[in-house]
TrEMBL record:
Residues 351-465 form the Adenylosuccinate lyase PurB C-terminal domain. This is Adenylosuccinate lyase. Residues 14-332 form the Fumarate lyase N-terminal domain. Pathway: Purine metabolism; IMP biosynthesis via de novo pathway; 5-amino-1-(5-phospho-D-ribosyl)imidazole-4-carboxamide from 5-amino-1-(5-phospho-D-ribosyl)imidazole-4-carboxylate: step 2/2; Purine metabolism; AMP biosynthesis via de novo pathway; AMP from IMP: step 2/2. One of its GO terms (molecular function) is lyase activity. Its EC number is 4.3.2.2. It catalyses: (2S)-2-[5-amino-1-(5-phospho-beta-D-ribosyl)imidazole-4-carboxamido]succinate = 5-amino-1-(5-phospho-beta-D-ribosyl)imidazole-4-carboxamide + fumarate; N(6)-(1,2-dicarboxyethyl)-AMP = fumarate + AMP.
Length: 475
């Protein structure tokens, strides 16, 4: 079957392709190849400035040509690398051969089955590069290229897609918190009505949690290494024993690639930072699962209505329904995302001895994990933008719950030394509703100063919200 959005195995590339498209240039296989080319070119250019007798700084024209290999990298270029890989059965080696082919070199004889690719290169550039072509991928192991590519991919996905989507959610939630900072509503603990709060304060709670989670996501250092087959610069020092390879490699990783250098590794960068990052993203996702379930429940109570769209159908048989599908979709996709993120954070830091290949196939699914994350953020935001607060329903429930004032009354009784205040209010209110007049009669019977009684009698369920509105307004 021809590949299309309808025949794609993953819904991220099918049904939801428009919502996850921002990740495709970064985390797709073509994106991976482009980042590999970027690493190879950065290393090659750096070597030309290292001061070795065998390779000299490239001319401005040659430098522009090499940079263009990265900047102009296309899907056709990725397809050619895949074509080379059908012979090499090695993806990084295929990238190396593609670069050499791009500067006008013939592919090795073992690749003669492939159609020859025609490239147009200025003869002066070709001459300058062909004489030093073996410095492409010089002293590198494949993981020097892969780990730094993954680092740049993850950093770009986090900074350009995931965090902006999370910040957009936080911004919307903060707007709701401010707008409804002073709207009283019943709280519920254990599913039972409890001391009142405000709608804005409950959203502010989520904002605060997500702000902290987002800071943790942003704070993770994205790391990279370029130190050879087992992390000791063995090949590097075999070729140039008097050169400061540690400084050189660190400069490439940090100054050219924008990552933090990891000095101590085996063949692979140990992926601890990926575990830290994915755990942090999973925590943010868990907070949003909590939010989705709460909003779903409030919609069920009637505290929120959902804006309808002409032509939309809520049920194939029940015409009246407006289902909270955005929050349901968000919750479901966050679950898939977290299952993948948590597996990766547990698996990736583990490697047998100096290297095994179990990380490689897992790392290819980073786009899936972050794709479901971004998809879930989009669904949640979409749902939030449809919400309308049903003030009448919230107020009705609050006005019908005078028993929640048992808490402040017994607390004031404690202040003035009245015996067994909790027990007295328990007998009056536990497991049953209470009318305003019954509570007021109880208050009037208490041995309290008249001014204190007056204040208690003025109290209503709607006024008993502490500093909830202040907390919501200042988030």
């Amino acid at each position: 079957m021809e590949l299309s959005a309808l025949s794609a195995l993953s819904p991220l590339d099918g049904r939801y392709v428009r919502k996850t498209g921002a990740l495709r240039p970064i985390l797709s296989e073509a994106g991976f190849m482009r980042h590999r080319v970027k690493v190879e070119v950065a290393w090659f250019k750096a070597l030309s400035h290292a001061g070795f007798a065998e390779i000299h700084p490239f001319s401005a024209a040659t430098t522009r040509f090499l940079d263009a290999l990265v900047d102009n990298f296309s899907v056709d270029d990725a397809a050619r690398i895949k074509e080379i890989e059908t012979i090499t059965n090695h993806d990084v080696k295929a990238v190396e051969y593609w670069i050499k082919e791009s500067i006008g070199l013939r592919l090795p004889p073992e690749l003669s089955k492939l159609n020859r690719r025609t490239v147009s290169v200025d003869p002066e550039i070709t001459g300058e590069l062909q004489s030093v072509a073996e410095f492409i991928h010089f002293a590198c192991t494949s993981e020097d290229i892969n780990n730094t590519s993954h680092g740049m991919m993850i950093k770009a996905a986090r900074d350009e897609v995931v965090l902006p989507a999370l910040h957009a959610l936080v911004g919307k939630l903060r707007d709701i918190a401010h707008e409804h900072a002073s709207l009283p509503m019943l709280a519920r603990t254990h599913g039972q009505i409890a001391s009142p709060t405000t709608l804005g304060k409950e959203f502010a709670n989520i904002v605060s949690r997500l702000q902290r989670a987002a800071k943790q996501v942003a704070a993770v250092e994205i790391m990279g290494k370029m130190n050879g087959a087992v992390g000791n610069y063995n090949a590097h020092f075999a070729a140039y024993p008097d050169f400061d390879w540690e400084r050189f490699s660190k400069d490439v990783v940090e100054k050219s690639l924008g990552l933090t250098y990891n000095e101590y590794t085996i063949q692979i960068e140990p992926h601890d930072y990926i575990a830290e990052l994915f755990d942090a993203i999973a925590r943010a996702n868990t907070i949003l699962i909590d939010l989705n379930r709460d909003i779903w429940s409030y919609i069920s109570l009637g505290y929120f209505k959902q804006v309808t769209k002409a032509g939309e159908v809520g049920s194939s048989t029940m015409p009246h329904k407006v289902n909270p599908i955005d929050f349901e979709n968000s919750e479901g996709n966050l679950g898939i995302a977290n299952a993948l993120l948590k597996h990766m954070s547990e698996k990736l830091p583990i490697s047998r001895w100096q290297r095994d290949l179990t990380d490689s196939t897992v790392l290819r699914n980073i786009g899936i994990a972050l794709g479901y994350t971004v998809l879930a953020y989009d669904s949640c935001l979409r749902g939030l933008n449809k919400l309308e607060v049903n003030v009448a329903r919230i107020t009705h429930d609050l006005e019908d719950a005078w028993e929640v004032l048992a808490e402040p009354v017994q607390t004031v009784m404690r202040r003035f030394g009245i015996e067994n205040p909790y027990e007295q209010l328990k007998a009056l209110t536990r497991g049953k509703g209470i009318e305003k007049q019954d509570l007021h009669a109880f208050i009037r019977s208490l041995d309290l100063p008249q001014a204190v009684k007056k204040e208690l009698l003025k109290m209503t369920p709607a006024s008993y919200t502490g500093i909830a509105s202040k907390l919501a307004a200042k988030i």
